[in-house]
Amino acid sequence: MAPLLNIEHLSISYGGIQAIKDVSIHLEQGEIVSVLGANGAGKSTLLQAVSGLVPISGGSVVFSSEVLNKVPAYEIVLKGISLSPEGRRVFPTLTVEENLNLGAYTRRKMRDEVRKAKDRVFSLFPILSERRKQLAGTLSGGEQQMLAIGRALMSTPRVLLLDEPSLGLAPILVKQIFDIIAEINAQGTSILLVEQNAHKALGIASRGYVLENGRIVASGPTSSLRSDEKIQEAYLGGAALRKKAAR
Amino acid sequence: MHVILEQIINGLTIGSFYALIALGYSMVYGVLKLINFAHGDFFTLGSYLGYTVLVFGAALLTAHFGLWGALTAALIFAAVSLALVGLIVERLAYRPVYPAGRLPAVVSALGASIFLQNTIMVGWGPRFQAYPSELIPNVHLQIGGIHLSLLQILILVMSFLLMGLLYYIVQKTTFGAAIRATAHDRKTASLMGININKVILFIFTLGPALGAMTGIMVGMYYRQISFTMGWNYGLKAFTASVLGGIGNIPGAMIGGLILGVLEMLGAAYISAAWKDVFVFIILILVLIFRPTGILGEKVAEKV
Ligand SMILES: Nc1ncnc2c1ncn2[C@@H]1O[C@H](COP(=O)(O)OP(=O)(O)O)[C@@H](O)[C@H]1O
Ligand SMILES: [Mg+2]
């Protein structure tokens, strides 16, 4: 069977600069797949291309046997793919509840479904229920991250794209967020996760890819990636550990 | 005391004109970061279209539908026509230049304004036109010693209904939340499944339609209209939207009402001849001391 989401030989350029070069990634139904990479590797560009926010210059994005290359961003969510963007991007002058309602914008006429989706988000993130009437801009960083993920879940996507959900969060919150990501996956949503926090990202995923300067330089089951020396060196603090030892 | 109250009510009347026009500026600015200079001329054109319906169609309409029918017809005709004009102007004058950045769009807006103003001048002539004055019975009421005309009461009721309707749409419905989200962050709004083009089309129909209805109310209130009046009202409404916090819908309403009241109180207690000067002093003071306006967020950063 074809993968749920299949990114094949994808290329993206900004002006003359190629940010993604011949990248192929697939996500099977029910999987969590992680994409690791340093700042500027092209992780966000990749997710934005899948979401229709940046134009694709080569290759293809196929979701559930449909080519999404030319589908505009506002229709991608209708197809069943939802992005929680880097830096959360909640609407700060809207309330928590309005933010969530917008997550279900394409289904706004189906009130029952919206209510069900909201109940699910509130059971995953009870704090959002407490803060539903508050402006999103008044939430803490961790709460905003929860809101961004909750908002992306409101459309009941089949594929959830997460762009650095751990960015700027305290370790205890990172753990909490990753536990919830695992739970969302256990409820049946396939997840493509992009992270700089390689420990966490490999811990939760079944497979992973490593992106460097827009190219995939390694891929495979997370166990094999974790035992790869080069990856340990570059992403799992191998170099830092050695430096510490040398001191 | 009664004089003050009467001036405040007069101020609220003209303030509601400013507020209704300001909404058009503010919605467009909020979503496109564009000052739509043509908006004042939408208002003027609406006023002239209403004038034509009332002058040439009144006898016929009144015979069939009565006085209120004729008025309603004029309002609806002007509102629908201007909604179409708004769509056409957006399509022809603004959409092609969005990718080129903000400055070309502003220049294009100025061009659209000059074009509309001249079209009105050619169509209806350069002289003042007298608005039909016999439509609303010239009834005056005394409420608690305060002197009010029936026309003024009608204008206030209608303005506040329109403002209330817009407030409800923008602040209370999911589509309204979509407009506010689009104004804040288009990219993320499109991730929600919001079609930004539909939001733009909506504000370019609603804003001009409100402006057109205001044009008719202004014509009936002052009894005369001219093809250049869009500049004056446009500038004051723009001031009102800056005062309230440009891009902010409740802000535009509050800004308009405050401006109208200040203008009337200034005219009554300082000098009537200088009333327009107060408006611009207010604009300058707001820009210096609170560029974000009463309800706005950081505008300075966006501009
Ligand atoms: N809007 C843009 N315009 C031009 N270059 C961009 C843009 N966004 C990202 N880039 C460039 O593309 C490359 C990949 O960026 P990005 O996808 O944000 O990486 P990551 O998310 O892995 O940090 C970087 O070199 C970045 O400077
Ligand atoms: Mg990134």
Please, could you describe this protein's structure?
The complex is a heterodimer of chains A (about 250) and B (about 300). Chain A has helices at about 45-50, 75-80, 95-105, 110-125, 125-130, 140-155, 170-185, 200-205, 220-225, 230-235, 240-245, and strands at about 5-15, 15-25, 30-35, 60-65, 65, 80-85, 160-165, 190-195, 205-210, 215-220. With about 250 residues, chain A is of the alpha/beta class. A 6-stranded mixed beta sheet of chain A has the order 6-7-8-3-9-10, sandwiched between helices. A 4-stranded antiparallel beta sheet of chain A has the order 2-1-4-5, with helices on one face. In chain A, helix 3 (about 95-105) packs parallel to helix 6. The model of chain B is unreliable at about 300-303 (pLDDT under 50). Chain B is mainly alpha-helical and about 300 residues long. The chains are: A alpha/beta (about 250), B mainly alpha (about 300). The interface between A and B is medium-sized, with 26 and 19 residues. The site of magnesium ion has 4 residues of chain A, from helix 1.
